[in-house]
Amino acid sequence: MAEKSFKKEVETLRKGAGEVFHGEGILAVTKALLQCGVGYVGGYQGSPISHLMDVFADAEPLLEELGVYFENSASEAAAAAMLSASVYYPVRGAVTWKSTVGTNVASDALSNLASGGVTGGTLVIVGEDYGEGSSIMQERTHAFAMKSQIWMLDPRPNLESIVRSVELGFELSEASNTPVILQLRVRSCHLHGQFIAKDNQKPKVKISDCLNEPKRDVSRIVLPPATFLHEKEKVESRLPKAIQFIKDHKINEFLSGEREDIGFIVQGGLFNNLNRSLVALGLSDNLGNVKVPIYVMNVAYPVIPDEVLEFCKGKKSVLMIEEAQPNYVEQNIGYLLHKNGIDCKLYGKNVLPEVGDYTIGVVKEGLVKFFEAIGENLSSEQKEIFTKKITEEDNKQLLEQVPVRPAGFCTGCPERPIFAALKIVQEKLGQHHVAGDIGCHLFSILPPFNIGATTMGYGLGASSAAAFNLFNTPTQEGQKRPIAIMGDGGFWHNGLTSGIGNAVYNKFDGLIIIIDNYYAAATGGQDIPSSRAFNFLRTTNNPIENAVKGVGVKYVKIVDRTYDVERMVKELTKALTTKEKGPKVIIAQSECSLNKERRKKRIFKKRVEEGKRVESEKFGVDAKVCTGDHACMRLSGCPSLTLKYTDNPLREDPVAHIEQSCVACGNCGEVAEAAALCPAFYSAKVIRNAGFMEKLIYKFQYGIINFLQKRRASKQITV
């Protein structure tokens, strides 16, 4: 990874048989892959699975020892296409990405893979970014698994279950010649725990062996008439094999309880939330020793008919706990009960919310409604525990303990001045339609910028403004052009072809701003083709400018320092008002401040420890000069730029104030100057390990300043 090391995590991957592995869920998956003899791994970074990619990127020596190939794929589609290596050859492969967005991108390759089938075990590890903390549209991977008939595992949120699912996932894939999705919810990815490790295994079949003995079978290629046979094979061969394997290996769990008349069916990933709710009711303990029978579906798809019928037989009522919508599993189980004449009342979305994250609080309320529906009244104490709402006093205490942290750009972010400049331009030229994209720059839709109307997908900013192309329309006085925003990560992911190439081909007469901050910053700071740093394993330093010109863009301007707000304003104004037709591209370049500070801090700390002279800069606001109109904040939004009350009794309103978190990017001062706001901003240099003459000069200057301040204070009239 670019500016952050994961060497500590890499060392944990070397643990052998019998050793205890401690770590978070996604790191346990990384270890499990190596224990299973995986031959190749690919993927595209994105929360909540970025950690897997980051650790593998730093684990090259270990991977080389084992003979495992790892690739930072250009996109999820590229990662999914890697799995074709397992179509003919018995080599195990795994890919990973954020879902459902990544699954959407990879859908073409996955559909083809699922159609022809596989020989070697293939595992698609998806970080199911649904519910609280999600950053994407609220959809489920379940629908895609059903559509393409790819089996999907949803293990209980504990490391032992997750690791077992990785092992069984490969075996299930090989037994049924079908790729398998391992769904990891956000909580599963980030929970911490332990499991007993096994030795890492070298791949049984090397990639080099596959190349030396190539295979080909036209019946596996997705082309008629083979495709018709593939569909038949899925139903008549692969599905029965998968069901039998799942039953034989008891992947789904039957938890017995004292009650025989009722039961719960729950997706594995939701088990912990259900159990915590049952603990409050006295129907379980923290170790999961339940008093009500539970059927835990560690396999979310396919539903195993025999197991469902066995569980429901003899019960009067069963509650299905299935998060989000549509309620695929509930419908499937309802159909099975009806078809087989099982007299068991099925509850689900009629007592639980149709949409949203099934948090513990939500599940508690659903349990109350379930017990009321079956005629069992809870005690007043139980009801109070289950239905207690957060009061205003609770909220007040929460705010005192946990400060409000609205989403926004990091301190020193080089993207902030771009939108400050765009806001200044729009004040002069009027509001424009701005198409957004996926990435840090999407924070521009929030205050103080309020810029951006839509976002259609990663790298699709330019193409989402395509319908506003007025190339063939005579230019009228005052006619506005569309603006599209795109990050460098999105550019290399999808934007070069779908965005820039499409704009050139269709003569898009608008402005496309490409934000080049040297990394895939929003996903953690991974290197990309245009990164400036040297990467031993990847080819970097491929300028975006060359790629843009290579597909035919004529109007290309580069602003190599985004903090130069005045220059940004000039370039934006020119691009929006020029009579030149066709796509106009501005590449705004400055390094991501988060990654820059990571690197600088290491160097800074080392130089200080070595006793070398180190100079750093801090910015401030002169409270006596600041007028308190806060215009600087409306054009900055920096977390370190805040308010402070002065000790001047004649000034009731607070003035601008810069906190110690400031990284001295200079944006606030640049914005103030470009917008002609005020001269209250100043910069100061902090010198560590200063030389003898510097110390002497400082003492002399400090003495004079101290003398003048005391003299001024003595002349002030005090009341």
Automatic annotation (TrEMBL):
InterPro entries per the record? HACL1-like, THDP-binding, TPP_enzyme_TPP-bd
Thiamine pyrophosphate enzyme TPP-binding domain mapped to chain residues: 439-587
Keyword terms of this UniProt record: Metal-binding
CDD domains xref list: TPP_IOR_alpha
Q: Does the keyword Metal-binding apply?
A: yes
Q: Name one GO biological process term.
A: small molecule metabolic process
Q: What superkingdom heads the lineage? A: Bacteria
| GO molecular-function term, one example from the UniProt record | catalytic activity
Please state what the protein is called: Indolepyruvate ferredoxin oxidoreductase
Q: Which organism is it from?
A: Sphingobacterium cellulitidis
